[in-house]
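Input.
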Amino acid sequence: MIRLEGITRSFRMAEGEMRVLHGIDLDIEAGEMVAIMGPSGSGKSTLMNILGCLDTPTTGRYLLDGTDVTRLSKRELAKARGQKIGFVFQSFNLIPRTNAMRNVELPLVYNGVRRRKAKARAALERVGLGERMGHVPSELSGGQKQRVAVARALINDPSIILADEPTGALDTKTTTEIMELFTDLNRAGSTIVIITHEEEVAEYCSRRVWLRDGNIESDTPVERPDNVSGLSA
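Output.
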């Protein structure tokens, strides 16, 4: 599903070139749920931007679902991003005065898809919000807002869900609910990559990739906790 080969990323600064990633090699198979972790300044955000096709590496190859996205034009990259990647962010990124249904429909609007309501309804029902479709974000709890964001990420049937600190704005109970939702989606076949600094979040994943100073310091399997039930349990 994902293959990174010798990925580097450098930025030009007033004092010279600063290299943030130093030859990252990483494979993520279809159906995995992987946590990418590391201290501040380790390169997590830069790696996330590359994985999400929001940025391109300075050198190296990125194969996404068999396509070398490092060779794509900006327009082709945007198309690949819209079709293959579903994003979930810490701040939810919902439109305040737009209800849950319409927030979930947005990716379909951008892609010119018709008959959007049925797909949006199905996505919201999949994340347990079938009864909250007409509510605007101010009428939803933090966990419900994140469920709307997850439904929006699922709407185009992406190859991968990329979640950037998805529980960073949530309390412990809601964090558990959202991670059980991700676990349920993963068990149903979704490939999920989570950028996080929370160890309790990483425990729900199958692998933990640890970055330090722009290098992969470790890549180890994680034993999931026995109490993870998911929505389908």
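The first strand starts at residue 2 and ends at 13.
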